[in-house]
# Entry
Amino acid sequence: MVATLKILGLESSCDDTAASIVRQTGTDPAEIMSSVVLGQTDLHSAFGGVVPEIAARAHTEKLDLCVEQALSQAGLALSDMDAIAVTAGPGLIGGVLAGVMCAKGLAMGAGLPLIGVNHLAGHALTPRLTDQVEYPYLMLLASGGHCQFLLVRGTDDFIRLGGTIDDAPGEAFDKTARLLGLPQPGGPAVEAEALGGDPDHYTFPRPLLDREGCDMSFSGLKTALLRMRDKVIAGKGGLTRRDRADLCAGFQMAVADVLAEKTRRALDIYLAENPDQPVLAVAGGVAANRMIRLKLESVAAQKNVCFVAPPLALCTDNAAMIAYAGLERFRSGFSDDMTLAARPRWPLDRTSPTLLGSGKKGAKA
Ligand code: KG4
Ligand code: ZN
# Structure
Protein backbone atom coordinates (compact mmCIF):
# COMPACT_ATOMS: atom_id res chain seq x y z
CA MET A 1 0.00 0.00 0.00
CA VAL A 2 1.28 3.50 -0.85
CA ALA A 3 1.82 5.56 2.27
CA THR A 4 -0.01 8.84 2.75
CA LEU A 5 1.79 11.35 4.94
CA LYS A 6 0.13 14.28 6.66
CA ILE A 7 2.44 16.88 8.18
CA LEU A 8 1.54 19.84 10.37
CA GLY A 9 3.94 22.74 9.76
CA LEU A 10 4.55 25.78 11.99
CA GLU A 11 6.22 29.06 11.02
CA SER A 12 7.05 31.97 13.34
CA SER A 13 10.51 33.22 12.34
CA CYS A 14 9.56 36.82 11.57
CA ASP A 15 6.23 38.63 11.70
CA ASP A 16 3.80 35.98 10.44
CA THR A 17 2.37 33.29 12.70
CA ALA A 18 1.46 30.40 10.43
CA ALA A 19 0.28 26.79 10.55
CA SER A 20 -0.52 24.46 7.68
CA ILE A 21 -1.25 20.85 6.88
CA VAL A 22 0.24 19.26 3.78
CA ARG A 23 -0.57 15.76 2.59
CA GLN A 24 1.14 13.55 0.07
CA THR A 25 0.40 10.04 -1.10
CA GLY A 26 3.40 8.20 -2.49
CA THR A 27 4.93 10.33 -5.24
CA ASP A 28 1.65 12.06 -6.14
CA PRO A 29 1.72 15.87 -6.05
CA ALA A 30 1.56 17.13 -2.46
CA GLU A 31 -1.67 18.85 -1.46
CA ILE A 32 -2.11 21.83 0.86
CA MET A 33 -5.07 20.89 3.06
CA SER A 34 -5.00 24.16 5.00
CA SER A 35 -2.72 27.16 5.32
CA VAL A 36 -3.37 29.78 7.98
CA VAL A 37 -1.24 32.94 8.19
CA LEU A 38 -1.88 35.46 10.97
CA GLY A 39 0.11 38.60 10.15
CA GLN A 40 1.29 41.20 12.64
CA THR A 41 1.67 44.27 10.42
CA ASP A 42 -0.69 46.33 12.59
CA LEU A 43 1.37 45.57 15.74
CA HIS A 44 4.61 46.87 14.22
CA SER A 45 3.40 49.68 11.96
CA ALA A 46 3.91 52.43 14.53
CA PHE A 47 7.59 51.48 14.84
CA GLY A 48 8.51 51.48 11.14
CA GLY A 49 9.79 47.89 11.25
CA VAL A 50 9.42 44.55 13.02
CA VAL A 51 10.03 44.78 16.79
CA PRO A 52 11.43 41.35 17.82
CA GLU A 53 9.96 41.32 21.35
CA ILE A 54 6.48 42.28 20.14
CA ALA A 55 6.72 39.65 17.40
CA ALA A 56 7.76 36.91 19.84
CA ARG A 57 4.92 37.71 22.24
CA ALA A 58 2.37 37.75 19.44
CA HIS A 59 3.60 34.37 18.14
CA THR A 60 3.29 32.88 21.62
CA GLU A 61 -0.27 34.19 21.87
CA LYS A 62 -1.35 33.12 18.37
CA LEU A 63 0.35 29.80 17.66
CA ASP A 64 -2.27 27.65 19.42
CA LEU A 65 -5.11 29.40 17.62
CA CYS A 66 -3.28 29.08 14.32
CA VAL A 67 -2.81 25.31 14.79
CA GLU A 68 -6.46 24.91 15.79
CA GLN A 69 -7.59 26.76 12.66
CA ALA A 70 -5.27 24.76 10.39
CA LEU A 71 -6.59 21.46 11.81
CA SER A 72 -10.24 22.47 11.64
CA GLN A 73 -9.95 23.84 8.08
CA ALA A 74 -8.42 20.51 7.04
CA GLY A 75 -11.09 18.59 8.98
CA LEU A 76 -8.40 16.68 10.84
CA ALA A 77 -7.21 16.11 14.40
CA LEU A 78 -3.70 16.28 15.75
CA SER A 79 -3.76 12.49 16.08
CA ASP A 80 -4.22 12.23 12.28
CA MET A 81 -0.78 13.79 11.70
CA ASP A 82 2.34 11.76 10.93
CA ALA A 83 4.81 14.39 12.12
CA ILE A 84 5.16 18.02 13.21
CA ALA A 85 7.52 20.25 11.24
CA VAL A 86 8.65 23.62 12.56
CA THR A 87 10.91 26.44 11.45
CA ALA A 88 13.98 26.10 13.68
CA GLY A 89 15.81 29.07 12.08
CA PRO A 90 17.11 31.32 10.71
CA GLY A 91 15.03 34.18 12.08
CA LEU A 92 14.27 36.39 15.03
CA ILE A 93 15.21 34.17 17.93
CA GLY A 94 12.18 34.89 20.15
CA GLY A 95 9.77 33.94 17.39
CA VAL A 96 11.71 30.85 16.35
CA LEU A 97 11.82 29.75 20.00
CA ALA A 98 8.06 30.23 20.35
CA GLY A 99 7.48 27.97 17.35
CA VAL A 100 9.97 25.32 18.41
CA MET A 101 8.54 25.17 21.94
CA CYS A 102 4.99 24.90 20.62
CA ALA A 103 6.00 22.13 18.18
CA LYS A 104 7.84 20.23 20.92
CA GLY A 105 4.78 20.39 23.16
CA LEU A 106 2.48 19.16 20.38
CA ALA A 107 4.89 16.40 19.32
CA MET A 108 5.41 15.20 22.86
CA GLY A 109 1.71 15.39 23.75
CA ALA A 110 0.59 13.52 20.64
CA GLY A 111 3.57 11.17 20.53
CA LEU A 112 4.58 12.38 17.04
CA PRO A 113 7.98 12.80 15.41
CA LEU A 114 9.40 16.35 15.37
CA ILE A 115 11.20 17.80 12.34
CA GLY A 116 13.18 21.03 12.43
CA VAL A 117 13.11 22.88 9.11
CA ASN A 118 15.36 25.65 7.82
CA HIS A 119 13.11 28.58 6.83
CA LEU A 120 15.19 29.20 3.70
CA ALA A 121 14.82 25.53 2.70
CA GLY A 122 11.07 26.03 3.03
CA HIS A 123 11.20 28.85 0.46
CA ALA A 124 13.68 27.00 -1.73
CA LEU A 125 11.60 23.79 -1.93
CA THR A 126 8.28 25.58 -2.62
CA PRO A 127 8.53 25.06 -6.43
CA ARG A 128 8.40 21.31 -5.73
CA LEU A 129 5.22 21.75 -3.72
CA THR A 130 3.51 24.02 -6.26
CA ASP A 131 4.92 22.80 -9.58
CA GLN A 132 6.51 19.40 -8.85
CA VAL A 133 9.86 20.70 -10.11
CA GLU A 134 12.53 17.98 -10.18
CA TYR A 135 16.03 18.47 -8.72
CA PRO A 136 18.22 20.26 -9.60
CA TYR A 137 17.04 23.81 -10.29
CA LEU A 138 18.23 27.37 -9.82
CA MET A 139 16.40 29.42 -7.21
CA LEU A 140 16.46 33.18 -6.69
CA LEU A 141 15.28 33.88 -3.17
CA ALA A 142 14.61 37.60 -2.74
CA SER A 143 12.83 38.75 0.39
CA GLY A 144 12.95 41.26 3.22
CA GLY A 145 15.96 39.66 4.88
CA HIS A 146 17.63 37.54 2.25
CA CYS A 147 18.77 37.56 -1.31
CA GLN A 148 20.63 34.64 -2.78
CA PHE A 149 21.00 32.38 -5.77
CA LEU A 150 20.78 28.75 -4.75
CA LEU A 151 21.54 25.65 -6.71
CA VAL A 152 18.93 23.31 -5.22
CA ARG A 153 20.14 19.71 -5.58
CA GLY A 154 18.14 17.86 -2.93
CA THR A 155 16.02 18.14 0.22
CA ASP A 156 19.10 19.06 2.20
CA ASP A 157 21.57 19.87 -0.54
CA PHE A 158 22.01 23.53 -1.50
CA ILE A 159 24.89 25.42 -3.07
CA ARG A 160 24.91 29.19 -2.73
CA LEU A 161 26.09 30.71 -6.01
CA GLY A 162 26.00 34.31 -4.78
CA GLY A 163 23.84 36.83 -3.03
CA THR A 164 23.65 40.26 -1.48
CA ILE A 165 26.69 41.56 0.29
CA ASP A 166 24.64 44.07 2.31
CA ASP A 167 20.89 44.76 2.34
CA ALA A 168 18.25 42.42 0.95
CA PRO A 169 16.13 43.99 -1.82
CA GLY A 170 12.94 43.86 0.27
CA GLU A 171 14.78 45.73 3.00
CA ALA A 172 15.77 48.37 0.44
CA PHE A 173 12.13 48.67 -0.70
CA ASP A 174 11.05 49.04 2.94
CA LYS A 175 13.66 51.74 3.63
CA THR A 176 12.76 53.56 0.43
CA ALA A 177 9.11 53.62 1.51
CA ARG A 178 10.12 54.99 4.91
CA LEU A 179 12.25 57.74 3.33
CA LEU A 180 9.33 58.77 1.13
CA GLY A 181 6.65 58.62 3.82
CA LEU A 182 4.96 55.54 2.38
CA PRO A 183 3.48 52.75 4.55
CA GLN A 184 5.11 49.41 5.47
CA PRO A 185 5.69 46.86 4.07
CA GLY A 186 7.38 49.11 1.57
CA GLY A 187 7.48 46.82 -1.46
CA PRO A 188 3.82 46.98 -2.47
CA ALA A 189 3.64 50.70 -1.58
CA VAL A 190 6.68 51.60 -3.70
CA GLU A 191 5.41 49.43 -6.55
CA ALA A 192 2.04 51.19 -6.51
CA GLU A 193 3.68 54.65 -6.52
CA ALA A 194 6.09 53.62 -9.28
CA LEU A 195 3.15 52.93 -11.61
CA GLY A 196 2.64 56.64 -12.12
CA GLY A 197 6.35 57.54 -12.31
CA ASP A 198 9.05 57.89 -14.95
CA PRO A 199 11.88 55.42 -14.24
CA ASP A 200 14.35 57.52 -16.23
CA HIS A 201 13.73 60.85 -14.54
CA TYR A 202 16.32 60.16 -11.83
CA THR A 203 19.46 58.19 -12.58
CA PHE A 204 20.06 55.44 -10.03
CA PRO A 205 23.26 53.37 -9.96
CA ARG A 206 23.30 49.65 -10.87
CA PRO A 207 25.63 48.43 -8.07
CA LEU A 208 28.16 45.65 -8.62
CA LEU A 209 27.33 45.11 -12.29
CA ASP A 210 30.99 45.80 -13.03
CA ARG A 211 31.99 42.92 -10.77
CA GLU A 212 32.04 39.36 -12.06
CA GLY A 213 29.79 36.70 -10.61
CA CYS A 214 26.36 37.01 -9.09
CA ASP A 215 26.87 38.86 -5.82
CA MET A 216 24.65 41.91 -5.38
CA SER A 217 24.44 45.09 -3.32
CA PHE A 218 21.34 47.16 -2.56
CA SER A 219 22.34 49.51 0.25
CA GLY A 220 23.81 52.08 -2.18
CA LEU A 221 20.45 52.43 -3.92
CA LYS A 222 18.81 53.54 -0.71
CA THR A 223 21.61 56.08 -0.11
CA ALA A 224 21.24 57.34 -3.68
CA LEU A 225 17.51 57.76 -3.11
CA LEU A 226 18.11 59.67 0.11
CA ARG A 227 20.46 62.09 -1.66
CA MET A 228 18.06 62.64 -4.56
CA ARG A 229 15.15 63.16 -2.21
CA ASP A 230 17.08 65.72 -0.13
CA LYS A 231 18.20 67.55 -3.26
CA VAL A 232 14.62 67.89 -4.48
CA ILE A 233 13.47 69.04 -1.04
CA ALA A 234 16.31 71.57 -0.81
CA GLY A 235 15.42 72.92 -4.26
CA LYS A 236 11.64 73.05 -3.99
CA GLY A 237 10.99 72.97 -0.28
CA GLY A 238 9.18 69.62 -0.54
CA LEU A 239 8.33 66.60 -2.67
CA THR A 240 5.43 66.59 -5.08
CA ARG A 241 3.43 63.43 -5.74
CA ARG A 242 5.12 63.32 -9.14
CA ASP A 243 8.63 63.51 -7.60
CA ARG A 244 7.79 60.65 -5.29
CA ALA A 245 6.44 58.52 -8.13
CA ASP A 246 9.55 59.20 -10.24
CA LEU A 247 11.84 58.30 -7.34
CA CYS A 248 9.94 55.05 -6.74
CA ALA A 249 9.96 54.16 -10.44
CA GLY A 250 13.70 54.87 -10.77
CA PHE A 251 14.54 52.88 -7.66
CA GLN A 252 12.36 49.91 -8.65
CA MET A 253 13.86 49.81 -12.15
CA ALA A 254 17.38 49.80 -10.70
CA VAL A 255 16.56 46.85 -8.39
CA ALA A 256 14.89 45.02 -11.28
CA ASP A 257 17.86 45.62 -13.60
CA VAL A 258 20.37 44.39 -11.01
CA LEU A 259 18.32 41.28 -10.23
CA ALA A 260 17.83 40.55 -13.94
CA GLU A 261 21.50 40.94 -14.88
CA LYS A 262 22.73 38.90 -11.91
CA THR A 263 20.12 36.24 -12.67
CA ARG A 264 21.49 36.06 -16.22
CA ARG A 265 24.95 35.40 -14.79
CA ALA A 266 23.71 32.89 -12.21
CA LEU A 267 21.90 31.05 -15.00
CA ASP A 268 25.11 30.88 -17.05
CA ILE A 269 26.90 29.31 -14.07
CA TYR A 270 24.00 26.95 -13.38
CA LEU A 271 23.42 25.89 -17.00
CA ALA A 272 27.11 25.13 -17.57
CA GLU A 273 26.75 22.30 -15.04
CA ASN A 274 23.07 21.42 -15.49
CA PRO A 275 22.15 21.90 -19.16
CA ASP A 276 19.47 19.18 -19.03
CA GLN A 277 17.43 20.78 -16.26
CA PRO A 278 16.85 24.40 -17.38
CA VAL A 279 14.65 25.72 -14.57
CA LEU A 280 14.69 29.10 -12.80
CA ALA A 281 12.41 29.40 -9.78
CA VAL A 282 11.80 32.46 -7.61
CA ALA A 283 10.49 32.92 -4.08
CA GLY A 284 10.32 35.60 -1.39
CA GLY A 285 8.16 38.69 -1.13
CA VAL A 286 10.17 40.68 -3.69
CA ALA A 287 9.28 38.09 -6.32
CA ALA A 288 5.73 39.47 -6.02
CA ASN A 289 6.82 42.67 -7.78
CA ARG A 290 5.39 42.77 -11.31
CA MET A 291 8.27 44.65 -12.91
CA ILE A 292 10.83 42.33 -11.30
CA ARG A 293 8.86 39.23 -12.28
CA LEU A 294 8.56 40.44 -15.87
CA LYS A 295 12.28 41.10 -16.15
CA LEU A 296 13.19 37.72 -14.66
CA GLU A 297 10.69 36.00 -16.93
CA SER A 298 12.24 37.64 -19.95
CA VAL A 299 15.78 36.62 -18.88
CA ALA A 300 14.54 33.04 -18.53
CA ALA A 301 12.83 33.18 -21.95
CA GLN A 302 16.01 34.51 -23.61
CA LYS A 303 17.91 31.54 -22.23
CA ASN A 304 15.19 28.98 -22.99
CA VAL A 305 14.76 28.28 -19.33
CA CYS A 306 11.46 27.34 -17.67
CA PHE A 307 10.38 30.07 -15.21
CA VAL A 308 8.56 28.95 -12.05
CA ALA A 309 6.99 31.53 -9.74
CA PRO A 310 4.79 30.11 -6.98
CA PRO A 311 1.51 31.95 -6.25
CA LEU A 312 2.05 35.04 -4.16
CA ALA A 313 0.74 33.55 -0.91
CA LEU A 314 3.37 30.83 -1.19
CA CYS A 315 6.18 33.25 -2.17
CA THR A 316 5.82 35.17 1.08
CA ASP A 317 6.12 33.60 4.54
CA ASN A 318 3.72 30.72 5.17
CA ALA A 319 3.69 27.35 6.91
CA ALA A 320 2.76 25.17 3.92
CA MET A 321 6.37 25.49 2.74
CA ILE A 322 7.57 24.36 6.19
CA ALA A 323 5.16 21.41 6.26
CA TYR A 324 6.27 20.42 2.75
CA ALA A 325 10.00 20.70 3.51
CA GLY A 326 9.34 18.69 6.68
CA LEU A 327 7.51 16.08 4.62
CA GLU A 328 10.49 15.68 2.29
CA ARG A 329 12.85 15.41 5.26
CA PHE A 330 10.59 12.89 6.98
CA ARG A 331 10.35 10.77 3.82
CA SER A 332 14.11 10.67 3.62
CA GLY A 333 14.18 9.16 7.12
CA PHE A 334 15.11 12.27 9.06
CA SER A 335 13.64 13.39 12.38
CA ASP A 336 14.72 15.48 15.36
CA ASP A 337 14.27 14.91 19.06
CA MET A 338 13.53 17.17 22.04
CA THR A 339 17.05 18.64 21.84
CA LEU A 340 16.06 20.51 18.64
CA ALA A 341 17.48 24.02 19.03
CA ALA A 342 16.22 27.36 17.72
CA ARG A 343 18.92 28.95 15.57
CA PRO A 344 18.97 32.67 14.73
CA ARG A 345 21.46 31.94 11.93
CA TRP A 346 21.46 28.79 9.87
CA PRO A 347 23.06 29.02 6.44
CA LEU A 348 21.64 26.60 3.90
CA ASP A 349 24.92 25.99 2.20
CA ARG A 350 27.20 24.58 4.86
CA THR A 351 30.26 25.19 2.71
CA SER A 352 29.76 28.96 2.43
CA PRO A 353 30.24 31.28 5.41
CA THR A 354 27.28 33.28 6.70
CA LEU A 355 27.54 36.79 5.28
CA LEU A 356 27.06 39.59 7.73
CA GLY A 357 24.91 41.58 5.39
CA SER A 358 22.62 38.74 4.45
CA GLY A 359 19.67 39.06 6.75
CA LYS A 360 21.22 41.53 9.15
CA LYS A 361 17.85 43.24 9.48
CA GLY A 362 16.78 40.31 11.61
CA ALA A 363 17.43 37.21 9.60
CA LYS A 364 14.13 37.20 7.82
CA ALA A 365 14.06 35.15 4.69
O1 KG4 B 1 9.26 36.81 1.95
P1 KG4 B 1 8.62 37.90 2.76
O2 KG4 B 1 7.12 37.89 2.92
O3 KG4 B 1 9.16 37.97 4.22
C1 KG4 B 1 10.48 37.79 4.52
O4 KG4 B 1 11.23 38.77 4.34
O5 KG4 B 1 10.77 36.65 4.89
O6 KG4 B 1 9.10 39.27 2.09
C2 KG4 B 1 8.74 40.51 2.62
C3 KG4 B 1 9.51 41.56 1.84
C4 KG4 B 1 9.28 42.95 2.40
O7 KG4 B 1 10.52 43.60 2.51
C5 KG4 B 1 8.39 43.59 1.35
O8 KG4 B 1 8.55 45.00 1.24
C6 KG4 B 1 8.84 42.89 0.09
O9 KG4 B 1 9.09 41.56 0.49
N1 KG4 B 1 7.78 42.93 -0.92
C7 KG4 B 1 7.91 43.51 -2.11
C8 KG4 B 1 6.65 43.41 -2.74
N2 KG4 B 1 5.80 42.74 -1.91
C9 KG4 B 1 6.51 42.44 -0.79
N3 KG4 B 1 8.95 44.12 -2.68
C10 KG4 B 1 8.76 44.65 -3.90
N4 KG4 B 1 7.58 44.63 -4.56
C11 KG4 B 1 6.50 44.02 -4.03
N5 KG4 B 1 5.34 44.00 -4.68
ZN1 ZN C 1 10.73 34.10 4.43
